[in-house]
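Chain A, query sequence.
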Amino acid sequence: MKTLQDLNRERNGAKAGKYLAALVDNRLKSLDYILYNPHEIQFVDYSHPDGRRTYIRSLSFILQKAVREVFPGTRLRIAYSAGNSLYCDMVFPKKREETEEDMALLRSAMMRLVEKDIPFRREKLPTNEAQNIFAANGFPQKALLQKTRGHFFTSVYYLEDHADTFYGPLVPSTGYLKLFDLCRFHKGFLLQYPQPDNPEKLDGAPNLNKLVEVFEEYVHWGNIMGIKDIGSLNQKIQQEQVKDLILTGEAFHGRRYAGIADRIAEHRDRIKLVLIAGPSSSGKTTTSKRIATQLKVLGMKPVVLEMDNYFVNREDTPRDEKGDYDFESLQALDVQFLNKQLFELLDGKEVEIPFFDFLTGQRTPSGKKMKLAENEILIMEGIHALNPVLTRDIPANNKFKIYASALTSLSMDENNRISTTDTRMIRRMVRDSQFRGLSAEDTILRWPSISYGERQNIFPFQEEADVMFNSALPYELAVLKSHAEPLLHRIPPVSPAYPEAVRLLNFLSYFTPVHPRDERYIPYASVIREFIGTNQQG
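Chain A, predicted structure.
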C-alpha cells in the first residue's frame, strides 16, 4: 500500500518537504492517506489556501501541547485571526496576564517539539468515546460540539499523549512547522505564521487595536447570551430558543447603530461627512441605512452621495497585471473632482452631481443639483472610503469614519476558530444566488480576486475608522446553512471550486439549522436580510 507521502517523495524528491497536504480527486487529504486506486492528485504547499490552513492548524496543535507542558492546569484560548497571526490568551490557575518570559518559555517548548519531528496521529473513534476523551482533557466545548452534531464517529488527533480534534488535515509531523513566533499583544498574545505570498517571512505585530476591542466586545456579549461556540448555539436551537436568539441579537445591533448615530449627532456642528467602508459582504449597505435612520430620529437629514458616479471614463481606467480594467483601484476614481465637489458642498455651495453610465463607460452631467441644508449630512459608502487620499481636501474634523466588518465571535470550540472570511464568503454566495443570478461556483472562483482587492484597498485602512461596527450575528450561520448548502451541492466534483465547496459543507455540517419557518422572526431591517432576502415563511 502506498501513501500520499510515498508518492510525494517519488514525484518531488528533494522538494517533497514543501508539500503539506494533497487534493485527491479534488478532496483535501493528509499525506498519510492510503492510495488504493488511481486518482487525480495535486500536492499543495503553503502558497495554496488549503496548505496554509493545514500549516496553521498544525501550528496551533503544538502551541496547545507546549502550554500543557510549560503551564500545567492553564487553559489556552485560540480566539481569532489578526493579520497573519492567531490572537490567543491563557487562563492561568492563579489569574494573571501573559509576560514576555511566558512567551520565551512557550517559544522554546514549541521549538523543541519541532526539532523532535514528532508524527501527528489520527484515530477515528465512536463519538461518545471521543466526547469522553475531550471532557477528560478539559475540553467541554469540544465534547458539546460533537454531541450536538450527532455523528457516529469523530476524528481524534494525537501529538504524543495530547489529544484534540481539528476540522481538516494536519501536516505529517512537527518538523514541518519551522517558521512561527509568539509576541505579546493586547491582553493576550499572537501566534504568528508566514505571509501568504512569502512563506519564509513573518509579519511584524499588526496595528489592530480597534479591531481586537470590537472582537472582545462581541465575545463578551456572546458569553452573556450563553453562546460562545457552535455547540452552545446548537443547544439553544435544539431547545427551541430561536426567537429569543434572533430578537436579542437584533436588539444588540439596534443599540450599536443608535450609539454610533449619537456620537455623530453630538458633534453635528462640525461633522458633515460620514464615510463607510468594509470588505465584501460585511453589511455596509445595511449599516449605512440603519445609521441614516437613527440620524433622522435625532433630527438630522442624511443625504447619500454615490461614489460610483465619480469613476473616471473607461479609457482612463487603470488596468491590472492581466490587462483587465481595475475598477477597484483608487485611480479608477476621479479623486480630484470628488474632493472639489465635496469641498463645495460642505462650504454651502450648490453642485451638479455627475452620473456614470456603466454601459458606455462615460461620466456625464446628471442635471441633478445638490446643496446641503443646515441639518443635512452626507453619507458616502465604498471600498476606498477610509483611505485618507480619497477625501484628502476635507478637514479631518468634518469627517466621521465607520468600518463595517463581520467579525464572527463564535468559535468551533476552545481552540478552533471560525474564519471571518468564511462567514463573508457564505453571505456573498447566498446573496449572489438570490439577487445576482450567480452560482456558488462563480462566487468561490471570484473570491481570490475579491480577497486580493481587500488586502490592497480596505484592510490597510481599517484602523483609520472612528468607530467599527461588527455586523456579525451569533445565529446567522445557522440561518445561512439551509440557503448555502443546496448551492454548494450543485458544484460538480471536476470544478476548481469543488475543494472549497467540500470544506464549506463540512464546516456548515456542525451547525444545527434554523428552520425556514423561524426566519419570520428576523426583522426586515436586519443585516441578514441583505443576503437572504425578505421573503418570510411560516
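The mean pLDDT is 94. The first strand starts at residue 2 and ends at 3.
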